[in-house]
Amino acid sequence: EDDKIGKVLVSFRAIDIDKAGKSKITYMINRATDRKRQFSISDEGTVTIQRELDRESISKYNLEILAVDDGVPPRTATATLTVEVKDVNDNAPVFAEEYKPILLENSPPSKIIEISATDQDDRKMGNGPPFQFRMDPEADDLIRTSFKVEQSNKGDGMAIVSSLGSFDREYRKQYEIPIVIKDSGNPPQTGTSTLTVTIGDVNDNIMQPGSKEVIVYNYQGQAPDTAIGRVFV
């Protein structure tokens, strides 16, 4: 899929026995079989790559090649060119899903979540798992001292994210942990995904006495059971 624009794929040659084999032959690609115009064909029947290919968008093309003579009426011959796009490792891995872990405040240090990764490349070509995880070394000091990311070799490779202390939701409600993920392709691709950990609330703050003056109005003539105000705590 990383072949350069202009690369020659194949050449076609049609023969017309009319006019002693000297008929002018015009070659075309049926654009219904190449709607994105990824390929072109020359007057001599040479097929080349016209636009960059992406296996993750289209992995196989069945191009109908037309050869039209200059007779009246013109006659057409057809052939099918099958192009299979071979994968290269050009996609960085990302989280396998959108993780939304919640860690209750005041909890002791513990495992928060196990995370896995995926990417769009063809694992049959060796592009993809197993994945390797680590905390981004550029993470700020608070994140690096509050959490740890450990590699697990389960499945296609996973990461275990744990807390290193307890947290107070009233101080901070969310923490964003940047995690670097590396695949096993050649050359390997690396991506960074962010895990957002939400600190869950527990009822750890006692109510404080307080007072507030609230002014409400009641108008003469209203029913005696009409609500004149409401107080919330």
Q: How far do the termini sit from each other?
A: 64 Å
Query: Mean pLDDT score, rounded?
Result: 90
Structural class: mainly beta
> How many beta-strand segments?
14
* Bulk shape: elongated
Helix content: under 10%
CATH topology of the largest domain: Immunoglobulin-like
Question: Strand order of the main beta sheet, please?
Answer: 7-9-12-11
- Radius of gyration, in Å, reads 33 Å
Q: Label the CATH architecture of the largest domain.
A: Sandwich
What's the CATH H-level homologous superfamily of the largest domain? Cadherins
Major beta-sheet overview: 4 strands, antiparallel
Low-pLDDT parts are none
Could you tell me the strand content as a percent range? 35-45%
Number of domains: 2
Order of helices and strands: EEEEEEEEEEHEEEE
What's the number of helices? 1
CATH class of the largest domain: Mainly Beta
Structure commentary:
This protein is mainly β and 233 residues long. The chain folds into two domains: 8-84, Cadherins (Immunoglobulin-like, Sandwich), CATH 2.60.40.60; 94-200, Cadherins (Immunoglobulin-like, Sandwich). It is built from one helix and 14 strands, in the order E-E-E-E-E-E-E-E-E-E-H-E-E-E-E. The protein has one helix spanning 141-146; strands at residues 8-11, 26-29, 39-41, 46-49, 60-68, 76-84, 94-95, 102-104, 111-118, 132-135, 147-152, 158-163, 174-182, 190-200. Strands 7-9-12-11 form a four-stranded antiparallel beta sheet. The protein has a four-stranded mixed beta sheet with strand order 8-14-13-10, with no helix packed on it. The protein starts with 7 loop residues before the first strand and ends in a 33-residue tail after the last strand. It holds the Pfam family Cadherin. It is a single-pass type I membrane protein. One of its GO terms (biological process) is establishment or maintenance of cell polarity.
